[in-house]
User: What shape does this take?
Amino acid sequence: MKDQIPLLGMETEYGIIREDLEDSDPVEESMKLLKSCPQKSVLGKWAYAQENSHQDMRGFEVQSLAQDEEEDAFCAEDRKRPYSYLEMKCDRVLVNGSRFYNDHTHPEYTTPECNSLFSLVAHDVAGERIVAESTKIRNQELGERAVQVFKNNTDYSGHSYGTHDNYLVPRDIPFDILVKGLVPFMVTRQLFAGAGKVGSENPKTNQFKGLQLAQRSDFIENILSIETMTKRPIINTRDEPHAKRSQYRRLHLIMGDANMSAYATALKVGSTKLVLNLIASGAAFPDIELENPVEAVLEVSQEKSRNATLKRKSGQSVKALEIQESYLEAIEQNFSTTNKEWTWIIQEWQKTLHELKYSPEKLSGRIDWAIKEKLFSEFMESENLDWDDPILQSLDLEYHNLDPDRGLYRGLEQENEVFSLLTEKEISRAIEFPPEGTRAKIRGDAVSKESEKIKSIHWTGVEFNNGDVLDLTGVISQEDVEKVHVAR
Assistant: This one.
């Protein structure tokens, strides 16, 4: 089975609050956070004209999206502020090839495109460090730690913000096959990819007491949809490839959680990449059609045994763990490469599913929901509390706080209570440099060496003030990168 998924990327919207004000403006706070970013960057030159979020993978273009109406409402409100649209966006392309901008009510960090799993995970963690450093600088301006930023997916007030994993996949894979192969996997991926959540915000299950596996599961309403802010789907159908449309799709998955554990991020993205390669190869993937995948998302997340029994369209039932085991078995049968990353993914996937089945307590140093379960259970026992005590949701938020002195995950890191997948050297390099052998390398180098000459910039190209254009649309491989460098 050869690797047919050449590029990967992550988008993370961060939660932000200003604790010294009763009614702070998240748009303005996000903007001021962005202005505090210390990394060298190109500011306010993102080519928005290159964006088109209305094309659907099912072969049509939608006239309007729910986010368009929300955007119009934002714009009406924004006109009351003393800033231009571009000032509020504070759109930065950083020297490491990433994008950091104000997505209205959230600061959003998008990794550069990466061509390997561990490179992507390093750049995701680099994003945490950059956001945290920007927060520190902003608080120094205020003279107190008033601004707090969270890498999570809910504010416990009914709002959800996203963490999206992206994969460049061959367009010759029929979309219906992609959906059929992915849906059961995505429904059950939260067994190890969920970040954990105290209670529920879903109207149908708001009486749930305990710890869910995942945060986004409360907000999934459809199997397929082009929307991202309402009617959120298991599979997002936006067809915006940021590459040659004739060759590739960008699979934009929006139901994932924001993982604090780099190990969990690696397993989430790595297993998904292998499943996509399985589908792309034409090999047989598990023939499992769930009766109601949307309902199954919540069932998996809220099942106390961590192994929900799900109904199939055939009338039979299947355990959530059995679905994951079926995908892993199919991949092992078709796995024939010396790729070290693939070997790591398979070994860790095997290990995690085995421990989930027989000794789930062993997950409490690597998988976010399991780390929370141990941490919160010990706290509840010491304080004689139950899962419905409001302090548990506060602790849940603090788990994701980027502040090294307040964040619960940060504290566990400092005490070596959680598994460290990356070295400080790997993280530091990702903060400063773009991934080698990718078009992000060209973009990052342009920001590093020619930032004053750049007129506009985007995932697919760089335009300079003198009229020169670097077209990166077809730049996918190391060979493509070398051709661009020769042409320059």
About this structure: The domain at 8-430 is CATH 3.30.590 (Creatine Kinase; Chain A, domain 2). The two ends are 35 Å apart (CA to CA).
